[in-house]
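Quick note —
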Amino acid sequence: QVRLVESGGGLVQAGGSLRLSCVASGSIFSILAKGWYRQAPGKQRELVAEITNGGGTKYADSVKGRFTIFRDNMDLQMVSLKPEDTAVYYCRITSNLYDYWGQGTQVTVSS
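Predicted structure written out below.
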């Protein structure tokens, strides 16, 4: 069973930056999309950014212009962070056979 492991989370002041990474423990074939989701306390998990195998990207309106997902390694570069970005961030890789999720990494933005 391939596992995804996120890293790069932490505590940062408002206006700061973080870069999240997601590493798979093995090979994943027939990837359809790679993405990042987040879940804040008391809220539903939401899509943050996604990139398809064809290179198309999708961002949540709240992060457009501040977050960037990279195609080669699916890193999530986050700049101009806001307190409302505080959440557990999960990476996800969707293949034509299975949906892989990481365990999450905490991002906390202080005001």
